[in-house]
Amino acid sequence: MANVDHAKIEEAVKMILEAVGEDPDREGLLDTPKRVARMYEEIFAGLHQDPKQYFETIFGEEHEEMVLVKDITFHSVCEHHLVPFYGKAHVAYIPKNGKVTGLSKLARAVEAISKRPQLQERITSTIANSIMESLEPHGVMVVVEAEHMCMTMRGVKKPGAQTVTSAVRGVFAEDYRTRSEVLAFIKG
């Protein structure tokens, strides 16, 4: 990712270490700024990706029943505290007019959207909106469950608390039975 300024990140990490009272020149911390810069390059790789790119390949298949990929694991970074949150995304859609995408494309879109400073609510709605705009299905439903380290490590300190968000579009918003079917499949 050419847009990451490693030198700037390394200097900032060194300053943070000094600010908290650490010695950035001690043996265990000597390479930490470089490691953090490489890590940021990796975990923020989605910043310059458009998730809709994953839905450019469409297969013609006369299937107008629900498609659900559940338990798509993801990791992201809370934009408020720059600490991780992680969990699972469940993505369902009902194709229309023979427009079906590859199953892995749904997971790739989740990955691209989550690899940037984020809010769980934004991840959820961006996935749903990207699918609606690209595939024009009968409907989309996205449910995201995550644990936020900003609630576990600091502040309220409640490990194990799960945040659940959903985005419901099209027929899933209009028909409670269709929405209930997705939720039943997610619960397993």
Automatic annotation (TrEMBL):
Keywords: GTP-binding, Hydrolase, Metal-binding, Nucleotide-binding, One-carbon metabolism, Zinc
Keyword DNA-binding: no
GO biological process, alphabetically ordered: one-carbon metabolic process; tetrahydrobiopterin biosynthetic process; tetrahydrofolate biosynthetic process
Oligomer status and interactors: Homopolymer.
Residue ranges constituting the GTP cyclohydrolase I domain according to the UniProt record: 9-186
Any one Gene Ontology cellular component term annotated for this protein: cytoplasm
A GO molecular-function annotation: GTP binding
Positions contributing to Zn(2+) binding: C78, H81, C150
PANTHER family, alphabetized: GTP CYCLOHYDROLASE 1, GTP CYCLOHYDROLASE I
Enzyme class, spelled out: hydrolase
Family in the record: Belongs to the GTP cyclohydrolase I family.
InterPro entries xref list: GTP-CH-I_C/QueF, GTP-CH-I_N, GTP_CycHdrlase_I, GTP_CycHdrlase_I_CS, GTP_CycHdrlase_I_dom
Identification of the protein by name: GTP cyclohydrolase 1
Tagged with keyword GTP-binding: yes
Catalytic reaction equation(s): GTP + H2O = 7,8-dihydroneopterin 3'-triphosphate + formate + H(+)
Naturally occurring in which organism (per UniProt): Peribacillus psychrosaccharolyticus (Bacillus psychrosaccharolyticus)
Pathway: Cofactor biosynthesis; 7,8-dihydroneopterin triphosphate biosynthesis; 7,8-dihydroneopterin triphosphate from GTP: step 1/1
